[in-house]
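Morning, I've got a small favour to ask if you have a moment. I'm working through a protein record and want to make sense of it properly. The fold is given in discrete form, as structure tokens running alongside the sequence. Can you walk me through what the tokens say about the fold? Thanks so much in advance, here it is:
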Amino acid sequence: HYTVSTAKDGVGTVILFNKRICAEYGISDEYLYELQENREWTWDKCLELAKRCTVDTNNDGKIDIWGFGAYGPAPVIPESFVYSNGAYCTYLDENMHYVYGLNDPAAVEAIEFCRMLVNDSGVVYSDDWTYGMWEKLWNRGKIAFYQVYSWEISNYVANLQNDEFGILLNPIGPQATDYVNAQNIHDGWFISRNAEDPEALAAILHDYLYPYDWKEDLEPWEYFENTVFDDESLDTIRLIEGRSVYALGEAATWFRNNILWSDFGVLSNVPARTFVETNEAPSQAAFDELRFFNSEEAVSE
């Protein structure tokens, strides 16, 4: 296989915070950014502040502002919490083969935290499990802290009605010592293994992608200059440098569809250990199948 890439680190999953809601409950922008700068923006602190922002504003006995939500099929993105605890959903061994990683105790701890966040903490809207429900509430200004993939951020500049948001990295897990930016997208030009002259194609691509002076060369934060409400959000994006890892596994279709693009069992309140053990064999089978299709034996067949 051949690939040529000039891509820099991309921003993975982040936490947006509604500036108005946070301010109403005594959480200033400066406080949040200071927490992050001091590496005190942790799972526990995130949960603590989310609880503070989960309120019944009109005293009718029903919560109408929620502390936490997320983009996608569940009110949390467990994959990012796995990485933020220093673990991996899957990893490559010394032979460049995928290995199931969710049986790592740190990964189990992350999934269990997400299960608790959704089912036991009281900080998420749980009356309707419809896909995208939490995005709707976020756009209506009803969620304080919102976990989202970075490529969705620009949508909220206009959609968040009259509110503004700030950007934080995913909080640090108890087994990690620093923030982890798990990026899902990396740009590259790929050459098929059955190309007639891959070396020549690689040379052409190298020349085409070479960083000539006349080419625009943007830093990751520069892509967000027109989609943020404060400079501190750009500082957050700058923090990904030296803190990025690749979120692997989407190449294995079963693992992608049933694990990475799922809710990790949190909506059905499945204990993390049960979810991990139940899905280990089929996940590894999907990785092994991928290994076969990349093997010389598969090519010959």
Q: What stands out?
A: The chain has a mean pLDDT of 91. The CA atoms of residues 103 and 276 lie 6 Å apart. The chain has twelve helices and ten strands. The two ends are 18 Å apart (CA to CA).
